[in-house]
From TrEMBL, chains A, B, C, D:
Primary localisation category: cytoplasm
Keywords, ordered alphabetically: ATP-binding, Cytoplasm, Glycolysis, Kinase, Nucleotide-binding, Repressor, Transferase
Assembly notes: Homooligomer (possibly a homotetramer). Alternatively, it may form a heterotetramer of two glucokinase subunits with two ORF2 (AC P40182) proteins.
Family designation: Belongs to the ROK (NagC/XylR) family.
Matches recorded under SUPFAM superfamilies: Actin-like ATPase domain (SSF53067)
Gene Ontology CC: one annotated term: cytoplasm
Localisation per UniProt entry: Cytoplasm
Reaction catalyzed: D-glucose + ATP = D-glucose 6-phosphate + ADP + H(+)
GO-annotated molecular function: ATP binding; glucokinase activity
BP term (GO), one: glycolytic process
Name of the protein: Glucokinase
EC id: 2.7.1.2
Record PANTHER family: GLUCOKINASE, ROK (REPRESSOR, ORF, KINASE) FAMILY
Length: 313, 313, 313, 313
């Protein structure tokens, strides 16, 4: 089989990329993300058509945030777009005249890493995306595992603190409230407010107030040894590692692949996560330990993974 | 393929059963459980030999508590027997002259239910054993999933309360400290001590003291409407259901099968667990819900499952 | 000594009342609450002057939300009015020509109940105000205890859940996030969303949606036995009672007086709080138990208490 | 008034000391602690008689672990001695012919520090004893506050983790399970087991195993910079400081005095506690902060305090 197209739906633009069997992106076509749900359907079609021009395309894979049904056809619920039981596969197929597969975007990214990135060579691997929130995907026995109804791998919403922080999902204490880019910023702001004398570098990078601290400031300040920034990463790692230990108890994978914007910091964030994982791993002395490694494809993982899942049919 | 033998290692006796392809136990042979690790090896062999007499046996499956390696040969660690990196497969094969498969006992029970019990017809199912502790097994895509290193499905040791109750595993806040037979008894004792006037039936069943309350008393008293006993089951269900909701976020199975002694109480315990599961399920209105059903094989699930896993090779 | 004036600063109106030595309000004068901090100072003065007309007034007591310093003169911080180190005593004294005492409003209400309400006859009593948030006051040895710096008795902000819900104070897990009118509504909304079939009465009282549920709906529905409403009160009581048990460990008062809007429901809310308090009280069998009683003065407690504190000088 | 005797009841010996009005111990008489409850009564009497020989003694104060009633006469419940509603005052008065006051031992120590140690000059001060467990005493308005029924200031048993660690009191999540000498050792053992490579100094001080680690080893290793030991103190401080912040919200004292064996480490433990306290203090920028200071009387505080309380009558 030859070329397929993968689609990534971002908050500001929609990207469609032509991908070959080796995971290489031959060409990308992007369009702005429209404000309406129906507009996005048209924009996806336009991006696919634009990217595919001049190529022999065999199928299209779309990565979408939210719940996708087990037929990989319908978006049951999307958090940021008003899609409720949206028949996305049918709509796009009618418009572009190609077979379409819809996939949860974090699943698609996990598959991308498994096939062409940090997951190569592993049969059982868990991918965690530490972005604004926390998502991921499950590979067991060399297959993406989507659950019976298509909505597995919602890592961000396991409850790590009973009666804990409110989550956008309506529940409380979800993991992504404690281990994500948003959590990192909250840690930094709380600490900078409590002890500004330990956050001088950090505060100087923003507008001087705790509220003005953003994620990039925390990273930059941590690299300079700012105590509050370093401690904020440590707190993030405490929760991330403890959650990985739970996932090791459940899935026992050979590796955890950590992607998303937070992982761009590399060992600044991965080393404390590894330590925390080790600290909380049950029966650590009696079992082989999963590796905790950085993702390799960056922001391209979802597009490449979606294209490859379309190829697999 | 014809007959295989399954072995169940209990605290007081070791049972070996001859099982046919339909999961029927044709004959069982039991021996007392010896006190030493090496004695247990001999006792398993004796039970297998005794059960197999007069039958054409093709293989033996042994369900053992603890970590079993990915080759299903070595017990890495057992909680109640002093086995540390114990080559159980080799030792038993030498003694009984048959191919042997070693499996975690909760995995074996899960497989038994999947093949011949409540899990029939499901491709993706999670089995939870609520006994003294909490164990279980994972079936995804019609296969038992053991993880890369053989130690997956340690459900009882995911952390549900940070800095929570000490667990026998050395960690804190493990699920089995909140959802298990032992937890049920603790709930009942605490409540009976605090409000004995609400535990009259319950206290009368034991020796009259909170410390004298045992699991069977809680069940019997709950059936009579004893407020403390009913509330203890509700507390157990609160934690069990919340944990199932987490597992639904991760695995999205079509069903949860609840086995173990606690499940013998049927809907007395299952109904509150279902309610609690429903209460905590993330995105409940946008997704199909897994069923929560009672196990069907009772205490035979492990033996039958181990025998069947041996047959599968 | 004769008459004093107490002032209550509400969100919509400011009330000044002339109070005699027996705690009786002889006359009340109210003015609308202006939007600005300085406007409120003028409005307080106007209300005091209006109320005092024709009376021989000896002093004025003002109940203000927030931190009041140990000299009872300066509002260090107010949550809803932009007062930061506001010299309220001086400003009002200049305007009304009478001695002024500034007091935290929950402290004033506690004193009102102690002197003329449910606290009469007790030497050591803790008052808890379950309103939108949770406040209170401490009477030990027949004196209001304000702490060394004036900011004691901030009951609502003790941490009952590590890493718990965000609070308006900037911290997490504060008691008032779990035991207050606002918490009650949150409980009801969460439960109505998860299990609408158990909230039929409750949903019918609002606009039919979970978001439309308000506090008065929960009370009304609970009186009709609506399962979700009843369970929401039980959850509130679980947290309220557990917190009272902590306060009993610390203060060992002879009584807890429960005031605020939530307490208007009387035994509907007090009985479950009593049960929960009893459930969590440490060493319950070895100690006399504090009573948990309803406040008696309703919304007048703060005004009457402030007036009486001014009389005490 | 002249000389009084204070009594300290330890696990191995009972000490009676003659104390003058300045808090100076003129003479001490000790006897071994007998195994039976009645034997301890006799031993106390013997110690008092022995110490008093040749002195003009006016009264005796006894510090006893457990609940003491509001008349300071009866031990309602003692955790380590089988005293249940024990009329200790009467029994000792009959034997020694002097007026006797019974006081909770942590209250007595708090009073000792207030009168002659780190609490001098403060009107409102909270003393915390970080020993094997966690106890303390409350001074408000220059008086020891015992509560209505005599059992106030049970700091160690406020609930800081819902559903947390089991406590000897029968409840769960008590502060002393997280902030005490026993907790410190648990932290060190858990960490040394998980990451022995970070505990080389610590493990070398004991018998080489995690279980062999004792409190003195943690202190010694922390002084040498052993990572696990330092981290264990940090964890202790995290919980101690957060609890102090709660107490500041409630009592708003001018100082916290930290005593008990853990405080012998001085700034090694006090500095992290101060940081943690500052981190968690509500409204920190709008209020004066209580000081966190070390106790000054060491193990003598209880005896001296009991003697002084007897003098006060």
């Amino acid at each position: 089989m030859g070329l397929t197209i993968g689609v990534d739906i971002g908050g500001t633009k929609i990207a469609a990329g032509v991908v070959d069997e080796s995971g290489k992106i031959l060409e990308t076509h992007t369009v702005p993300t429209p404000p309406t749900a129906e507009g996005i359907v048209e924009a996806i079609s336009a991006a696919v058509t634009g990217a595919g021009k001049g190529h022999q395309i065999e199928a299209v894979g779309i990565g979408a945030a939210g719940y996708v049904d087990d037929k990989r056809a319908t978006v049951l619920f999307a958090p940021n777009i008003h899609w409720r039981h949206e028949p996305l596969k049918d709509k796009i197929e009618q418009r572009v005249g190609l077979p379409v597969v819809v996939e949860n975007d974090a699943n698609a990214a996990a598959w991308g890493e498994y096939r062409f990135g940090a997951g190569q060579g592993h049969e059982d691997v868990i991918c965690i995306t530490l972005g604004t929130g926390l998502g991921g995907g499950i590979i067991i026995g060399n297959k993406l595992r989507r659950g019976r109804f298509g909505v597995a791998a919602e890592f961000g919403h396991i409850r790590v603190v009973p009666d804990g922080l409110l989550c956008g999902c309506g529940s409380q204490g979800c993991w992504e409230q404690y281990a994500s880019g948003r959590a990192l910023v909250r840690y930094a702001r709380q600490r900078a407010l409590a002890t500004p004398e330990n956050a001088e570098v950090l505060l100087a990078l923003g507008d001087g107030t705790a509220e003005g601290i953003e994620g990039k400031h925390v990273s930059a300040a941590a690299r300079e040894g700012d105590p509050v920034a370093v401690d904020s990463f440590r707190e993030l790692a405490r929760w991330a590692g403890a959650g990985l230990a739970d996932l090791a108890s459940l899935f026992d994978p050979s590796a955890f692949i950590i992607g998303g914007g937070v992982s761009d910091e590399g060992d600044l964030v991965l080393d404390p996560i590894r330590k925390s994982f080790r600290r909380w791993l049950i029966g650590a002395q009696w079992r082989p330990h999963a590796k905790v490694v950085a993702a390799q494809l960056g922001g391209k993982a979802g597009l490449v993974g979606a294209a490859d899942l379309a190829r697999q049919g």
